[in-house]
Amino acid sequence: MYYVYIVKCADETLYTGIATELERRIEEHNCSDKGAKYTRVRRPVTLVYSEEYPDRSAASKREYTIKKKMNRADKLALIEGVIN
Shortest CA distance to 26 belongs to which of 55, 57, 49? Predict the structure, then answer.
């Protein structure tokens, strides 16, 4: 199982990623050098949204859509459940 997730950083920015173990990945963002470079300087992060996918390909496609095709307002609407 793969997860596409959005975290809110301490500076109120949003970061989108994929992971196989969601809890471990959030812990890495908050406490480890394995966290994304973007989130390392914006700790702590809070998980605000996630979706499950059966394979990496589907998760990567969704991550791309969220990162590249959605603006901040769209992402906030997704988090609030207003859009899919």
Answer: 49
List the domains of the chain with CATH numbers: 2-80 (3.40.1440.10)
Instruction: Return the exposure string of 50-79: e unless at least 16 CB atoms fall within 10 Å of the residue's CB, then b.
Output: ebebeeeeebeebbeebeeebeeeebbebe
Within 13 A of 64's CA, how many CA atoms are on the CB side? Answer: 6
Q: What is the pLDDT of residues 3-46, one digit of tens each?
A: 999 999 999 999 999 999 999 999 999 999 999 999 999 999 99
Q: What is the pTM of this model?
A: 0.96
H or E element in which residue 17 lies: strand 14-19
